[in-house]
Design brief:
alpha+beta, Ubiquitin-like (UB roll), five-stranded mixed sheet, about 25% helix
Length: about 180
């Protein structure tokens, strides 16, 4: 049995201490926005925040997380997909298949908390998540948009989806591309 603070709620889960946090989030708690990619801390699809730091939940055991640790998943990043990173992702239509994007968004949000005005170098250093679809250029542009450091552009904070750009957040809080992935 473990007690976890997930997206501001305290939850008890009946699992062995060596169970990866990713499986608890997906299987026990039902938060399927966090994805399984490699399972060995390489791809970043499983990224969540723990106490504000981006962490790869496939490689963290439940037993190593205390009830006081604040776990935030893509579903808890904002109540209505209004985080500046989420808005920028929608505005620039970043996702392709979408599978990696929850992790990308969590990594980008953590980066902007630490470095609100990141350079390209800061982004390249922080964003080590893998995207099989190669959306890296749009990810970089969206981070600059969210930060207000896009060339000639202001901050995304005051932008909506814009005319002709339907806002279609997936039910799990992640951004959906052409294909829904669960
Ligand atoms: S699934 Fe965790 S890093 Fe790939
Ligand atoms: S793997 Fe990144 S959008 Fe498809």
């Amino acid at each position: 049995m473990a007690q976890l603070n997930i997206n501001g709620r305290s939850q008890q889960v009946d699992v062995e201490p060596d169970t990866p946090l990713l499986w608890v989030l997906r299987e026990q708690v039902g938060l399927t926005g966090t994805k399984y990619g490699c399972g060995v801390a390489q791809c970043g699809a499983c990224s969540v925040h723990i106490n504000g730091e981006v962490r790869r939940s496939c490689s963290i055991t439940v037993g190593s997380v205390t009830p006081r640790d604040r776990i935030v998943t893509i579903e808890g990043l904002s109540p209505d997909s209004s985080h500046p990173v989420q808005k920028a992702w929608l505005a620039l239509d970043v996702p392709q298949c979408g599978y990696c994007q929850s992790g990308q968004i969590m990594a980008a949000a953590a980066l902007l908390t630490k470095k609100p005005k990141p350079t390209d170098g800061d982004i390249d250093e922080a964003m080590t998540n893998i995207c099989r679809c190669g959306t890296y250029q749009r990810i970089r542009a969206a981070i600059h948009m969210a930060a207000g450091t896009a060339r000639g552009g202001g901050s995304i904070i005051h932008m909506g989806g814009g005319p002709g750009q339907p806002v279609t957040p997936a039910g799990d809080g992640s951004m959906s591309g052409p294909a829904e992935v669960h």
